[in-house]
Write a structure and sequence with these properties.
Distance between the termini of chain A: 64 Å
Number of domains of chain B: 2
Strand content of chain B: 15-25%
Order of helices and strands of chain B: EEHEEHEEEHEHEHHHHHHH
Number of helices of chain A: 4
Low-confidence stretches of chain B: 134-144
Distance between the termini of chain B: 63 Å
Structural class of chain B: alpha+beta
Largest sheet of chain B: 5 strands, mixed
Oligomer: heterodimer
Number of strands of chain A: 1
Shape of chain B: elongated
Order of helices and strands of chain A: EHHHH
Chain lengths: 128, 250
């Protein structure tokens, strides 16, 4: 018998998808995108705060966010909003007793819609 | 007789106030044996201080629920060959979101207490419930007693272990008790005070994992959603001054 010392439980288990089914994956995605959108809201408010520092500070900041890294970040925000919004719509439907038995195919369809919408926005952003 | 596999079994141990840790045991066992067989072999031949729950060995009592490689299982019906391969590892841990009594044994008292709160009896009197589910059994004459077991929930606690909402808040009523409330039928005021709260059906995060792991196909998540629908319907009817189903019945 060998003894292994390690901490078996920690908070990361909330986001551990191993051995879990599609419903749990939807839950994880909803939590991650929810936190991401909350963080974006904070950054957005900070950006708006630049308005109070005058037009020069604001224009300088806007130039910075035209960098491709920021554009990629914006695309992530669009994907997060779509995932969170459409998944939330699924939960609302389920809470009204609609589509409970079909919650997995419903999630799959909504994620396909997310992907298609995300690709559309990405093409529009790159074309701009 | 099938060939025996060589396995590493890692068992989470915790006695009293000591920190949880894993003990590793080497075992030769058939892939057709159950995980509970492996645990019993460890107890019988390797370490008799190992604590684990077991009784019926055919998924009726719900005593042998554990996490097998991170997934909640009734170990008496989980085959070795389904969870690992020859030379592989099986990691056994107690259920989450319930207090650990010793090693793989958890205290299910909170579950039993909440099942009683929502008036979900372990057995149902035939005479009092002839209307719906009991009728078939009564007609078949399966029991000479006045009580028989009809509800599917075996109170194993797997659904509580897998539930992310139960991990967030110990005050959450939990999937089993909420399913029990739904099984009770019409949501009366007493049950409503338990289920129609922030720690009741509205705490559920709709991960549906409780329905996935339930060995009795109770489908707690589906029942929680049905109860949400009933509660929303009651609220809408009250808002428009209409009688609720419960009021009409009275």
């Amino acid at each position: 018998m060998n003894r292994i010392f390690q901490k078996p439980d920690n908070a990361i288990q909330w986001f551990d998808p191993r051995g879990r089914q599609l419903g749990y994956l939807a839950f994880i995605l909803n939590r991650i995108t929810g936190m991401g959108l909350a963080l974006y809201l904070l950054l957005h408010l900070i950006m708006l705060g630049k308005l109070a520092q005058g037009p020069q500070a604001y224009n300088s900041f806007i130039e910075t966010v035209h960098h491709p890294v920021f554009l990629f970040g914006e695309l992530l925000v669009i994907f997060a909003a779509l995932i969170h919004g459409l998944n939330g719509f699924r939960i609302i439907l389920n809470s009204f007793g609609i589509g409970v038995e079909k919650h997995k195919p419903l999630f799959t369809v909504l994620m396909i819609v997310t992907l298609l919408c995300g690709i559309y926005f990405a093409v529009r952003m790159i074309a701009r | 007789m099938s060939q025996k596999w060589s396995l590493n079994i890692e068992v989470q141990r915790q006695k009293g106030q000591e920190q949880p840790h894993f003990d590793r045991f080497d075992l030769e066992i058939s892939p057709d044996a159950t995980v509970l067989d492996a645990v019993e072999m460890i107890w019988a031949f390797k370490d008799c201080s190992l604590c684990f729950g077991h009784a019926c060995h055919h998924s009726t009592c719900g005593a042998c629920g554990m996490r097998v490689n991170g997934v909640e299982k009734l170990t008496c019906i989980t085959l070795i060959g389904d969870v690992t391969q020859n030379g592989g590892t099986i990691r056994l841990q107690p259920l989450r979101n319930l207090p650990v009594v010793s090693d793989l044994v958890v205290d299910l008292t909170p579950l039993y207490h909440r099942m009683a709160q929502v008036k979900h009896p372990s057995v149902h009197p035939i005479e009092e419930n002839k209307g719906v589910a009991n009728q078939q059994t009564a007609q078949q004459g399966e029991s000479d007693n006045s009580y028989t077991r009809l509800a599917d929930c075996i109170e194993c606690g797997l659904c509580i272990s897998v539930c992310p909402a139960a991990m967030t808040s110990p005050a959450y009523v939990g999937p089993a008790a909420l399913a029990g409330a739904h099984l009770a039928g019409v949501i009366d005021q007493q049950i409503c005070a338990i289920v129609d709260t922030k720690n009741g059906v509205w705490r559920c995060h709709s991960a549906y994992e409780c329905s996935e792991v339930c060995p009795s196909h109770v489908q707690p998540a589906h029942r929680i959603m049905q109860m949400r629908r009933q509660l929303l319907s009651q609220r809408i009817r009250r808002f428009f001054g209409l009688q609720t189903f419960h009021q009409r019945k009275q």
